[in-house]
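Lab manual, section 2.4: Encoding a predicted structure.

Procedure: take the sequence of the chain (98 residues), apply the prediction step described in section 2.3, and record the output as structure tokens. A sample record is shown.
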Amino acid sequence: MAVDGNWNLTMTTPMGERQATLSLKAAGGTLTGIQGAEGNTAEIFDGTVSGDNVSWKVSITNPMPLTLEFTGTVSGDSMSGEMGIGPMGSFPFTGARA
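Recorded output:
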């Protein structure tokens, strides 16, 4: 699947740009993997893939407990989309294959 592999993400947030790593594997329409940032890692959940479209959620505790909701599109070795931060709204993210 086109999304499988390791990615480096850049997320634009209210606190500036944040970097994260992402390891993804697609099986049918299900997307699984691990996302890491600032020394913390978490399994993604509710991951789906349909063609070039991907979505997943990840729970973080730093800088505060939140569930981030990602929706994006994969094009070759790049990915782009929106990251929802609950009541704070949505912010853009980009990704490049590692």
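Check your result against the sample. The chain has no helices and nine strands.
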